[in-house]
Structures are given as C-alpha cells and as structure tokens.
Amino acid sequence: MFLIQQPCEFSSLAYLFGCAGKAQAMAVDVHLYEVDRFIEMAEEKGAEITHVVDTHVHADHKSGGPELAKRTGAKYVLHESAPVKHPFHPVAHGDRLELGNVSAEVLHTPGHTDDSICLLVTDHSRTDEPWFLITGHTLFPGGVGRPDLHGREREMAEKLYDSLFGPILSLPDHIEILAGAEAGSVCGGGISGKPMSTLGFEKRHNSGLIREREKFVEIIASIELPPVEEIQEFYSFNTGA
C-alpha cells in the first residue's frame, strides 16, 4: 500500500492512501484548494481515486471533497447523519470501504461533531489485522477534539468520551494514529507538533484522555479555545446551506 500525509492550511492534515497493486486510492479531508494536488498525487502513484471521504463536516476550512469526487468520478463519503444538502454516499458504523488489497472500516465517533467518523485501515497484502486509524478531529497526538463548535458542550463531551473510551481505545496499542490536524489547529487543545502517534503512547501520555467520565466531561467541555474564524461561512459552504 501507499500513504501520503499532506499538510494543509490551518494546521490541518489530509491523506491519500490505497492499493498500489490494484491502483485504487482514497482521499481524506481534502481542502478545496488542494484538489488539483490530490489529482496529481494519484496520477504519480498510477492510482484511480475511488473514494473521497470527509471525516466530518468541517468548520475550519472549505472542503474539496465534493469537487474532487466530481472530477475523479469517485464516491463522496460522509457519515449517514451528515447535515449536508448535496449528494453523498452515506456510511454507518462498521461499514467497510474496499480499495483492492486495502480496506477502511468506518467507526462512528461523535463528539467533535455528531457526524464524525474514524477510518480503521488494513493492508491485507501484509495481514488481516488493522494497521492505522485516521482519527479526523476526534483524537490527536496530545489532545482530543473540541466539543463546543456548535454549542451543546456537555452533551457533545459525553459523546466524545463514549467514542474515545469505546471503539477507539478498545483497539490494540500498536495501532498508529493519523489525525486530521497538528499543533496550531483550533479544533482541539494540547495537540502535538508530531503528526502521528500510537494508541499505546496516547493511552499513557495524552492529558485529554481522562478516564473518569464526569471529570472528563467537566474539563473538556470547559476548555477555552480560540473561535474558528469564519466558522459560519465554512460550515455553510460545506453543508450546502
């Protein structure tokens, strides 16, 4: 398989990965101005982009997902609960997206937003055990996603706790974490400048992974982070409102 981590504006991270042998690729969390670059990267790998995924409806940048899907003929993938008006391919928890010898299992992980998903990726040419987790804005090296973007801070912090301590942290410690942002992003607190980690390391050293539920909700819901600039403009653009 191949994997490219693409730094973007606003300290975001996007991804292109897939199966070199079967020449199929998936693009994740692509910014609007990066569409041409992702088409070029796929061509350099000799791969067709068959799936374009947004891990959630973004509030910090304009998504290039619909445009990239239109230009490549790929499926534009969002969780089935995504509040958008434009057409998309809906997925639910446990669904699996196939890319030749590579697969990505969808984990519904609400908390940062209601429609947030993570992608558990396996390279079946090596093993049928999953290798890494694309975590979007749910879990970062050093921090967790902010739950206050659209109000309902405590309710969303409770959902975030259940997502983190349920489907995510129940995975094996060796699973690599590939987050949707690095230090400098306003979508979470305490994010490390190192753009990848492992679940085992985060379980031991991530200050946002507070195991006591009420304490987690109290602390995470009350963290004050800078407002996302033009949040309503970005959100309206991405939902098609």
What's the name of the CATH homologous superfamily? Ribonuclease Z/Hydroxyacylglutathione hydrolase-like
Estimate the global geometry from the Cα principal axes: globular
Number of domains: 1
Please tally the helical runs, counting DSSP H or I stretches of 4 or more residues. Answer: 6
The helical percent reads 25-40%
Average pLDDT:
95
Instruction: Extract low-pLDDT stretches.
Output: none
CATH topology descriptor? Metallo-beta-lactamase, Chain A
CATH architecture: 4-Layer Sandwich
**What is the N-to-C order of secondary-structure elements (H for helix, E for strand)?**
EEEHEHEEEEEEEEHEEHHH
Sheet with most strands = 6 strands, mixed
Assign the structural class, choosing from mainly alpha, mainly beta, alpha/beta, alpha+beta, or little secondary structure.
Answer: alpha/beta
Radius of gyration: 17 Å
What's the end-to-end separation, in Å? Answer: 37 Å
Quickly name the level 1 CATH class.
Answer: Alpha Beta
Strand order of the largest sheet: 1-2-3-4-5-6
Q: How many β-strand runs?
A: 14
Beta-strand percentage range: 25-35%
